[in-house]
Design brief:
The protein has about 375 residues and is an alpha/beta fold. The strands form 3 sheets. The chain has a 7-stranded parallel beta sheet with strand order 3-2-1-4-5-8-9, sandwiched between helices.
Length: about 375
């Protein structure tokens, strides 16, 4: 039996449903157990399946502590206790520290890194630092630490072709060869957010759109705010999810943009800001009451669990022509301007055949993300 030690920093332990890393772990790790592996989760909070072992770790406090702090002795002790065959470092920057702890503990496990985000993106040939990790000029140190982590890994797991391309180019510029270490393994969809029949908008009735992404500035929320003003009308209402609710002072001190944009969006006529209280059932109800979703204006997006949530529910998702979205979403639903987005929206809400076709396409695009399928791919990738 393969033992997988899954290391995860949870940035929102008080709001687990808003932490995509935890949501993925809560779906993936039980699927690994179903596939015959033993899974041990080292994180600030456990997953919901008690078959997954749990090793509690401290909350780093800030996103920079998560990248630059570490305790080699504690990691070495964890490795001695769990004796894993595979160690998964979801915080790629921590991989050199994990490798050092493995050396100290005498562990010969495979060290895999799950690149659930990239601290950069590309615009044509220009590498752009992720502004969310560039406070006080820390963007370049984060990038270099991330690449140092990539150098320490036996397996480099990314979510998409877009992420694989970006990482290959960035690593090549740093003199790193990824070769056979690079594997594409997308996260699983949430089986609780799957349905077969998404009802089309009814002619003459008010159609409903949902925006279920974080409201940080680096998600392009300023651009989305302008789009929301363009789209809402007496014929279309828009629900914006407030995924965080009240955040800890340490997090708002670094970036208060979610609160600022939440208030700005709530002031737009025709926009409702909804908080699910961390209840995934309530979250599903919001999606189920919508007709289509809207992707974020986030250039550095290598994957979006929120987009997949909508699509698995049969909701077409309209999107700016950016990053992974341009790879994954049907070309008919991509736009470059708010005016183009408005035309697509009008067709989704006014053409039943167009809506039905894209609803079916959306659902089909997530079929390969069933947890059992992804778990098999994951175990193959880290073997």
């Amino acid at each position: 039996m393969t033992t997988v030690l899954y290391l995860l920093n949870i940035s929102n332990p008080d709001r687990l449903s808003a932490d995509s890393g935890w949501v993925v772990a809560d779906t993936l790790l039980p699927a690994l157990v179903d596939a015959g592996a033993k899974a041990v989760f080292a994180a600030p909070a456990p997953v919901s399946d008690e078959r997954v072992g749990f090793e509690p770790t401290a909350v780093p406090g800030t996103k920079y502590r998560a990248r630059f702090d570490g305790d080699t002795a504690a990691l070495a002790d964890l490795l001695r206790r769990t004796r894993p065959d595979v160690v998964v470092a979801n915080q790629v920057e921590s991989a050199p520290l994990v490798r050092a702890a493995m050396l100290e503990a005498g562990s010969d496990a495979v060290l895999a890194g799950y690149c659930h985000y990239l601290p950069f993106s590309f615009e044509r040939a220009d590498l752009l630092l992720d502004p969310s990790l560039d406070d006080a000029g820390l963007g370049r140190p984060v990038l270099l630490t991330f690449l140092a982590g990539v150098a320490a890994l036996d397996r480099v797991l990314v979510h998409s072709e877009t992420a694989a391309h970006w990482l290959t180019v960035a690593a090549g510029r740093a003199g790193l060869e990824l070769g056979e270490r690079l594997r594409i393994v997308p996260p699983p969809r949430d089986p609780a957010l799957v349905r077969d029949d998404a009802p089309a908008p009814i002619e003459g009735a008010v159609a409903a759109a949902v925006y279920n992404h974080r409201l940080y500035a680096h998600y392009g929320t300023e651009e989305f705010l302008r789009l929301a003003v363009e789209l809402v009308s007496p014929a279309l209402r828009l629900t914006v999810m407030d995924l965080f609710g009240s955040r800890r002072p340490g997090r708002t001190a670094l970036d208060a943009s979610p609160e600022r944009f939440r208030d700005a969006l709530a002031a737009v006529p025709g926009v409702e800001v909804a908080f699910d209280g961390g209840d995934r059932t309530r979250y599903r109800q919001v999606l189920a009451s919508s007709h289509f979703g809207i992707a974020p204006y986030r250039p550095s997006c290598p994957w979006s669990l929120s987009v997949i949530d909508c699509q698995a529910m049969g909701l077409p998702v309209i999107s700016p022509r950016l990053g992974w979205m341009a790879e994954h979403i049907h070309p008919d639903l991509l736009f470059d301007t708010p005016a183009e987005a408005a035309k697509i929206t009008a067709r989704l809400t006014g053409d039943p055949a167009f809506y039905a076709g894209h609803s079916a396409f959306a659902k089909a695009s997530t079929e390969a993300l069933a947890p059992a399928v992804v778990a098999a791919r994951y175990l193959e990738a880290v073997a």
